[in-house]
User: What shape does this take?
Amino acid sequence: MTSTGPARQASLRERNLATVARAVVDAPEPLSRADVAARTGMTRATVSTLVDQLIEAGLLTELPAVSSGPGRPAVPLAPAARTVVGLGLEVNVDYLGGRVVDLTGEVVDEIVIAENLRGSPAPATLERLGHLARDLMARARGMRVAGAHLALPGLVDTRANLLRIAPNLGWSDVEPLALLGLPASLPATVGNEAKLAALAQLWGCPVAERASRTFLYVSGDVGIGAAIVIDGALFGGKRGWSGELGHVTVDPAGPTCRCGASGCLERYAGKEVLVTDVGLDIDVADDVLVDRLSAPDARTAVSTAGAALGQAMADAVNLLDIDRVLLGGVYTGLVPLLRPAITEQLRTRVLGAPWAPVDVVPAPVADHAALTGGAAASLRAVVEDPMPWIAAAAG
Amino acid sequence: MTSTGPARQASLRERNLATVARAVVDAPEPLSRADVAARTGMTRATVSTLVDQLIEAGLLTELPAVSSGPGRPAVPLAPAARTVVGLGLEVNVDYLGGRVVDLTGEVVDEIVIAENLRGSPAPATLERLGHLARDLMARARGMRVAGAHLALPGLVDTRANLLRIAPNLGWSDVEPLALLGLPASLPATVGNEAKLAALAQLWGCPVAERASRTFLYVSGDVGIGAAIVIDGALFGGKRGWSGELGHVTVDPAGPTCRCGASGCLERYAGKEVLVTDVGLDIDVADDVLVDRLSAPDARTAVSTAGAALGQAMADAVNLLDIDRVLLGGVYTGLVPLLRPAITEQLRTRVLGAPWAPVDVVPAPVADHAALTGGAAASLRAVVEDPMPWIAAAAG
DNA sequence: GATAGTTTGTATAGCCAATGAACTTATTCG
DNA sequence: CGAATAAGTTCATTGGCTATACAAACTATC
Assistant: This one.
């Protein structure tokens, strides 16, 4: 209730350090101190001291100076490689794994174990993942791990780091962090798989490829999750349960869903429906499914799913006023097939469509995006608040 | 793209002034300087200088000291009455008007003209409203008008202050601010009626009655608009077109909507449908309609509308993770009638419902809420950034 | 009814961080 | 080689918050 805290002198430092760090990390190409000053409006003197601190803390590095034109050549700055890293973890129906990413966005290390985890025992599986995570951390010796984010396919209470229910894993009411057994000093949180994957689209790839800062990310798998990103910020809702697109009603008279309601999107466009429509097994690889759905006799299956997806998306767009949708998960490869039906729905059902059509594109980061997103989220926290790292480096 | 600006020393002042102003304005009862210090974490010395400036600027006042218990009696602080005011304006299908509100939340003055404005000519009507607004400003001589917000029932591009389309007025592509002819020095914006009404729920009533800071406000009239408020901030979407709940699809095979799509919520729970269901005219007063819908023979009409409303709300809640819905407009009085059908839908369709049921309550501010909300929005801007007012008072 | 006790509000010295202007450094161009 | 140019650094100055001490205004008690 009580607004934001007081602004002390130290707050100035905090904010300006973050501003400088952001400027360098988010820049498409290396900036000099002078560039940063011009871009942020600070004086070169201020930027200089801040940059020095960020270098000292291991968050930025100086690249070799290159001279172009008259004047003293600029010293280009870039995020430091392999000094501070983030750890992304995930358990999903068909694999479990971890990925280590550094501030440059490079994947430093990863372990991914493909395996069917439907109905696996939560404690044992999470203990295995914890072991895997500790292995990764041991292999990252010399680098400081900023934090870990665990992605799970289900309803995660982000305030309590509690998994309420993950229907496809068959898990419910799990406290995953306790079972992982990570060092207590490591900031760790649990998040929904789709939301962390969305963050990967925002930060987890080279700057040029990054998604615009406002979009809806839709992740198709057995369940259909979504994440809402507005102006570079994830919109999680009150408990982090936003984006349950899979249970938006497509037709109230439709088939019953696992969730107990009727006519949910999942029953029209979920992976289970897609595979059975074309006579495949749920464990089929995504590219095989895409191939099979490209065949002429799969056209009605595809257009039915696309229409349902488009209808649900239209509802979301009408509620949220978003003009860009990224399709991830199984849908990534299906974009060309699904797009006609989707855009038709968006065109007719979105009230604002005449003035700004909605873009539907495949998600740029596809490969285990939630792992990258989880790692990137930890790193983002460092960029947004570098002060603790300065203090630690000085101490 | 380029992050936030630099933090100068002056930024500290700006932020702390805002923090103090917020603390006093949002407090349920008057706070002393010492209270503010304790609550914000600043020192009494700092708070003292800041409070003095805010008093000087006419934003706060000292109330007579009351002594209770030992020690020097505290001087209670409160928002100043009738010094700075906000102006809310609105054109809707059945009236046009303006309202002047001060920092205490009191309505200082208002002019409301009940009148059927469907199909009225936009330029003439807005010029009339402009005249009315100038009258109100003249009558508020001695008070400083912080800003004006015009509420319109339609798609408003909040970045360009452009009305794209207001189907119920029959207006399209209007630039309302130019037609109002307000003084150029007055900050003025145009907004959607439902969104400004939602802001009234947040700020426009005595603190105790204020809605919690996260809710969905649904305004039922001919159209059905909604506004999403998360943590005290309106979620407008990219252009301010969020909350088009009236065009969420209830049944893709349903009747055709004015918007061209089929089965929109508006066709099940809009006022037009409600009145024709019970044989009334569209111009009927809201309380007459409520009375008529309370009759036993209106039960199916009510439950059909409630179920549709509940289904659309469930979609919204699944996407947004909000656990409180305020019903405004015609719906305010219908809450007891509609609630059973609505909550049934929410209970079965909202994925998170087992862990946190959704509250459905009538909106606390009902009477021309958009007027109050528009005025309150201007005042909120003053509270959130008092610095310019300090400077003006000093100069 | 004077005095101790308590809390509010104000004054003053000190500190921290950003500024601006001058200065140094490193390059290109003529 | 020197003039021009731009990057980065140094340093006195300024603004704003903190801490500490102090003045003010009240209650409670002997």
Summary: Chain B is about 40% helix and 20% strand.
